[in-house]
Amino acid sequence: MPKIKIISIDLQKEFSAKGGKHYRLHPNVKFIKNVLIPYLKKRNIKIAEIISDYRQPRPGDLDDSTRPGEWGYQSEIPKDAKLDNIWIKCMNSPIWTRKNIGNPHKKPGLPYQDPKAFTNWLNSIIGKPSKSALIVLIGLTLDCCVFCTAQELTFRGYNVRILEEGTDVYSGKPKEKIMILNNYPLHNWAEGIKWDELKKML
For a Cys-Cys bond, which of 7, 66, 70, 148 suits 54, CB 3.0-4.6 Å? Predict the structure, then answer.
């Protein structure tokens, strides 16, 4: 059986809860909170987490959201269900970071790429790429940040799958989600895995 690591991406209230700036109804949020997390807790399996700090300035993207210290920045993953070392990004791709990222008391710097720092995080949380290991992605969104993370991890040699019940598209439209899961370009970097299949592997 492969070694399984689960990474949650951007499961923050800004996207997942009513009142959030980018909220849409996403059934995967309920699944993660009511099914996945309790199941993992019983087996003492911790979730790794990537979240976003989307404050301005962010050249190329005028959005200003998921501001540290504010309600929308908060994660839906309970503290006791996740690993302590959280990666914070400031663009869709996880290799983008910046000075004062995640710090609500200091002005954030301009985004820049730091692939070395992301490598160090992966090595400490996930380990180096291995054929016997499998990374399963959950969170939001399948057509943006989950997609970009799948690309980055696959480029690095990781074996990546996307938990179908644990992800959703930005719009929350089921037909759109099915279309993306079952077609290219997503399949260039990762394929879906259903919950019943994953449970047998955990």
Answer: 66
> 0.70 cut: is pTM over it?
yes
48 alpha-carbon distance from chain centroid: 9
Backbone angles phi, psi at 9, to 5 degrees: -120, 125
- Where in the chain are the domains? 3-201
State pLDDT tens for residues 54-109.
999 999 999 999 999 999 999 999 999 999 999 999 999 999 999 999 999 999 99
Give the residue carrying structure tokens 């394929």.
Answer: 191
- Maximal C-alpha separation, the chain: 46
Q: Which fold has domain 3-201?
A: Rossmann fold (3.40.50)
Nearest to 65 by CA among 78, 77, 50, 51: 51
**Closest Cα partner for 87 from 126, 132, 36?**
126
> Angle 142-40-163 (CA atoms, 0-180°, nearest 5)?
20
